[in-house]
Amino acid sequence: MGILQFTYLLHGLLWTAFLTAIGFAGGIAGGVIIALMRVSASPWLRIPAICWIGLFQGTPLLMQLFVAYFGLPLLGFNLPAWGAVAVALTANASAFLGEIWRGAIQAVPPGQSEAARALGLHARSRMIDVIMPQAFKLSLPATVGFLVQLLKGTSLAAIVGFIELTRAGTIVSNQIYKPLLVFGVVGAMYFALCWPLSLWGRRIERRMAAGLTK
Amino acid sequence: MLTRTASRNDGTAQRPAGGLMIEMRQVEKYYGTFHALKSIDLTVAKGEKIVLCGPSGSGKSTLIRCINHLEAIESGEIVVAGHRLSDSQKAVDAVRREVGMVFQQFNLFPHKTVLENCILAPMRVRKLSRADAEATAHKYLERVRIGNQAQKYPAQLSGGQQQRVAIARALCMEPKAMLFDEPTSALDPEMVKEVLDTMISLAHDGMTMICVTHEMGFARQVADRVIFMAEGRIVEENDPETFFRSPKHERTRAFLGEILTH
Tell me: the pLDDT tens digits for B111-135? Predict the structure, then answer.
């Protein structure tokens, strides 16, 4: 494998990181909304959130990518490949993060919300000042865990012809006929991204278990 | 502190007009099919200190939680400092503005420092500036003798200190009445006294207080009335002296026997 091929893989790696960042950023924005809708007292907010979560957790990401890539143009949305992939990843991530944060919000002891209500704080302040900062801390290990899943999930974008790391690996492998070497390098690159994230997630989890949640 | 008039058991309690802080009339509360409060009538005068006791599940916590609408009632009427409680947010806000509450489990916000715990509600609800809120907070933290811990997080304090912060946090809203829901039940024995001392000093300053507690020494020392509840009803109420010396009801005698003889 020459420098040219290696650079090509690095280019794919960059796209993988980019897709992950987009999916994660979109997932955070969407996930907060989904989580808040999901814990709302109003069924008009809660039920759509339940459906959204069910839909995107209950179908394969691959299928969601197909729908975004082939389906959205049929509806008149002409997106570039990366745009379609970003839409699918964002929707998928918002469902998973929404559910993770829903769990975290509900894991904050009810006494916290009670104390806030007794002090006269309104729903908005209770959420923003009291519940969400604690829920965020509780959800960090699961959130980081999901980030790793999302990063690996971007490899599915290869199926719609998007040249991210996995697709770049396939192309290089077809050029130089050394699949073991090429995919070994591709694997090492994924590992180099995911491993530190996993370690970080584990560290947060250990710290939380020790009760040092400041 | 206004003087107490005749206890409810002896007939109608007549108190001076405008002297009432909390009134509950014919209050009924259900949890599903469980009848938690049964036709509760209770009036508390300004400055009066009430100790509420009774076996677990008797409805005493539920009763005080209805006063600041942490629990909604099915029927009856609750008036706090002239504000009639209803399910409307405005009515609930008005009542919560006047009433502070202290919980068994402290319920301090663990992600905020002691000072931040104390300034949050004054800034958000009373719209005080940060400087004013901090000045108020320091005043009440001094008051509960914990002024030097303002920058610590709750987890760095002992249980007794945490509960005193919780009292200060409630006082920072400058309430007209305070509700205490078993404030010493989660504390180690050696920390009970510091919290009770804080409550006693608050009582001496004329705060209207309703305390759910089994600290009978505290009841003797500060209570104007002791109320005994069982199975969702007010069974008996009297001044502490009479209450402890000659309880009228068999249920009360049995309960006092349980908690006073160890």
Answer: 999 999 999 999 999 999 999 999 9
